[in-house]
Design brief:
By secondary structure, the chain is of the alpha/beta class. Helix content is about 35%, strand content about 20%. It has 13 helices and 14 strands. Strand 6 and strand 7 form a beta hairpin. Helix 1 runs parallel beside helix 3, helix 2 crosses helix 3 and helix 3 crosses helix 4. The relative contact order is 0.15.
Length: about 375
């Protein structure tokens, strides 16, 4: 069997050629895989969590982190290896960790000043090796573009269910931000009115904004509807704090795509009475070590507080939940989850929600009402 080798250019060209229908099909495949991961057994599927070793990390002499991520299916085995530069103390890279829909309450801490962060690229670089069931190499793929795309594909699984997506904030301006914006527009472009990119410096955001405004690859997306507008905000702007607060309060969706080690905005932007007037979808993908945070832990604490009445997974008895891809991995690595002191009763895997959805659809087919509470929570809850 021939070995297929795909460069970063090859991967990027393939991904840019995908249509909305292609993205939806890929999301369905990913949802099924996550469902198997969360609910399958070794007797039923090779994708079950028991067959997926936790990723390993090695710290380099200069502070970089190299991650080794094995995975297995019924027919193939894969190993992704990526390296990430060490984030600065208050830096604004990758790997899907947690997604929530939030409201909140709490204390304030100073937000990280994006203008003081490292100028080094935080894009993870590495490779993906694929083997068949007999161990024969099938493919060797540059993982740089693929990692950002796959993360955005997972982040937009629940985004696709939201009832209101008029205003979107994206923290960061690298490949993760690029693909989160692109997939959001492919999936819901006709409904999006504002996309606000918030980055450590305006200079760092220029390549992304140039692509959006001038690249032929974005032409059909930037003209998705007559109300669609793009803007960039950086920490070196004099009115940054005021505008940041306004953007966060107005947002329906927040994609946080940075390797920050301190919250990107004060908790009370979301946890005060004013901040809690609307539900928001928040996807956190930047933290891959316990000391890293993008969202203030107090926001998560209130999201799971007992006043919330959603019980859509097997662990929770009361309170809300934070949605994650892997419960075990997030409790070991996701800084926000760890620093908020969340336990397994506060987390639900995406695959479990897929299971609940399938059960609800079957109930509807049998003449029942399904899980109306789950539908409301996915569409507009916190």
């Amino acid at each position: 069997m021939p070995l297929t080798v795909l460069t970063d250019f090859d991967v990027r060209s393939l991904l840019l050629s995908l249509s909305r229908d292609d993205i939806v099909r890929l999301q369905h495949n990913l949802a099924d895989a996550l469902h198997d991961y969360s609910t399958g057994t070794q007797d039923t599927t090779g994708c079950c969590s028991a067959n997926q070793p936790q990723r390993l990390s090695i710290q380099g002499r200069h502070g970089q982190t190299t991650l080794f991520m094995p995975a297995n299916t019924n027919t193939t085995t894969g190993m992704k290896i990526v390296s990430l530069v060490a984030p600065s103390t208050s830096s604004i890279a990758s790997s899907s960790r947690s997604s929530i829909t939030t409201q909140a309450s709490a204390s304030s801490v100073p937000s990280a000043d994006p203008s003081t962060t490292s100028s080094r690229s935080t894009t993870p670089r590495g490779s993906l090796t694929l083997l068949d069931s007999a161990g024969t190499p099938l493919g060797f793929i540059n993982a740089e573009e693929l990692t950002a795309f796959r993360t955005a594909l997972a982040s937009t699984l629940l985004f696709s269910k939201r009832s209101r997506v008029h205003s979107i904030i994206v923290f960061g301006a690298g490949k993760q931000a690029y693909w989160h914006i692109r997939l959001a527009l492919l999936l819901r472009g006709s409904e999006i009115h504002h996309v606000n990119v918030i980055n450590r410096s305006f200079t760092g955001a220029q390549p992304l904004m140039r692509d959006i405004y001038k690249s032929e690859e974005w032409a059909h997306l930037r003209n998705a509807n007559s109300k669609l507008r793009f803007s960039a905000l950086s920490g070196d702007y004099g009115e940054y704090d005021r505008l940041l607060k306004e953007h966060v309060r107005d947002a329906d969706v927040l994609f946080m795509c940075t390797p920050s080690t301190s919250p990107l905005f004060p908790a009370e932007h979301l946890t005060s009475t004013e901040g809690r007037k609307k539900g928001r979808y928040i996807s956190l993908i930047g933290s891959y070590q316990p000391h890293m945070v993008e969202l203030h832990p107090e926001v998560l604490k209130q999201a799971v507080a007992q006043e919330h009445k959603h019980h859509h997974h097997r662990h929770a008895e009361k309170g809300g939940v934070v949605v994650v891809d892997s419960l075990e991995a997030c409790m070991k690595e996701a800084g926000e989850v760890i620093q908020a002191g969340l336990g397994s009763e506060n987390l639900v895997e995406v695959g479990e929600l897929v299971m609940v959805k399938k059960a609800a659809m079957k109930d509807i087919e049998m003449g029942g009402e399904g899980e109306k509470g789950l539908k409301r929570w996915l569409e507009s809850g916190n």
